[in-house]
Amino acid sequence: MMMRVAVFACAVAVVAGAVSPARADDLWAESHGDRWRATHEAIYATENEIARLEADPYVDDGYKAPVISGGRAAAFRLRATLYVAHWRWASPCCYSRKPIRIR
Q1: Which residues of 22-60 are buried (b: 16+ CB within 10 A; e: fewer)?
Q2: Pick from 71, 65, 80, 69: which is nearest to 47 by CA?
Q3: Which residue in 54, 32, 44, 52 sits closest to 75, CA to CA?
Q4: SS (HEC) of 36-99
């Protein structure tokens, strides 16, 4: 009987250690995904390149127009590959309350 209790206690300790707060960052990275992070970095880099070209008055418009439109299309395609964000709020949304009746 004592052996069963010892094995059970060790199993509980192993499970508790596997899901401890120290691993929270790893669990977040797995659920959020490296692909998601890489896609956001690519969108950020593309939008920065577009902004740099739009702000530079010395670059010919004939050169930067197709680059800018291609960059915007690439950013749009990258955004389309991302899944929709589902935010978790601590308080309920304002739309969940009863509507106010004004007479």
Answers
A1: eeeeeeeeeeeeeeeeeeeeebeebeeebeebeeeeeee
A2: 71
A3: 44
A4: HHHHHHHHHHHHHHHHHHHHCCCCCHHHHHHHHHHHHHHHHHHHHHCCCCCCCCCCCCHHHCCC
Q: What letter would DSSP give residue 21?
A: G
- Interval 31-66: pLDDT, tens: 567 788 888 899 999 999 999 999 999 988 899 999
- For residue 56, give every residue at least 6 positions away whose Cβ sits within 8 Å of its Cβ, in sequence order, or none: 64
Give the distance, in angstroms, between the CA of residue 16 and the centroid of all CA atoms in the same chain.
Answer: 27
Element (H, E) at 30: helix 24-32
